[in-house]
Design a protein that fits this description.
This protein is of the alpha/beta class. It has helices spanning 2-14, 63-72, 94-107, 120-125, 153-168; strands at 25-26, 31-33, 39-40, 48-54, 79-86, 112-116, 132-137, 143-148. β7 (132-137) and β8 form a beta hairpin. It starts with a helix and ends with a helix.
Length: 170
C-alpha cells in the first residue's frame, strides 16, 4: 500500500498523472498514421486508450504487456491500443522498421499505428527517449498511467486493473 501511495504521490506532484496533456498533431514532416494521414492526440477520447511510445530498438521491451492485453480480450468498443513509433530514436533504416511494423500489425491488427519522425512526443509530453513508454488515457483523454521502461509484473497487474475499472465506467 505504501508503494502505491508513493507512486501516486510522485506522479500527482509531478503534474503528470490525471493531467490533460497538450494536444499533439503528427502529420507531414513530423509523422502521422501509417497510411500517411494526420494523427492528433485529441483522438484519445471516447474510449479507454493504451498508448505505447516506442523506440524501434526497444520494440520487444513491453511485448509482455501487449500479449497480456491480447489475452484479456477487452471490449473493442470501449478500449483500443495505439502504438507510436519514435522513428528518430533509431539507426535502423525506414524499410526495416516498415517490415517490423507490418509483422506487429499482423499480430495486433486492432492497434492504431503512428509514426513520430521528429520526437514530437518526447519534446511535448516529456516522454523518455530511446525507450518504451506505456501510457493509459481515460475516455476524456486524461492520463491515468505513465511508465517508461519495462513494466514489472506488479505494474502490469496494476495497469490491467486500471483498464478494467475505466472500461466498467463506460
Amino acid at each position: 500500500m505504501d508503494k502505491i501511495l508513493i507512486f501516486l504521490s510522485f506522479f500527482c506532484f509531478s503534474g503528470l498523472l490525471f493531467a490533460q496533456l497538450p494536444t499533439v498533431i503528427l502529420s507531414g514532416d513530423s509523422g502521422g498514421r501509417t497510411d500517411g494521414s494526420q494523427w492528433s492526440s485529441a483522438d484519445l477520447q471516447g474510449k479507454v486508450h493504451l498508448l505505447f511510445y516506442v523506440d524501434p530498438d526497444e520494440k520487444d521491451l513491453n511485448e509482455h504487456v501487449a500479449d497480456a492485453l491480447k489475452k484479456s480480450k477487452f471490449n473493442k468498443n470501449k478500449f483500443t491500443t495505439v502504438a507510436i513509433i519514435n522513428m528518430a530514436a533509431t539507426w535502423m533504416p525506414k524499410f526495416a522498421i516498415a517490415s517490423a511494423l507490418k509483422s506487429k500489425q499482423e499480430k495486433f491488427p486492432d492497434a492504431i499505428y503512428i509514426k513520430d519522425l521528429k520526437k514530437v512526443l518526447v519534446k511535448k509530453w516529456k516522454l523518455k527517449d530511446d525507450s518504451s513508454n506505456v501510457l493509459l488515457f481515460s475516455t476524456s483523454g486524461k492520463l491515468l498511467f505513465n511508465q517508461a521502461g519495462k513494466l514489472a509484473k506488479k505494474q502490469l497487474q496494476d495497469l490491467l486493473v486500471l483498464i478494467k475499472q475505466n472500461i466498467k465506467d463506460i
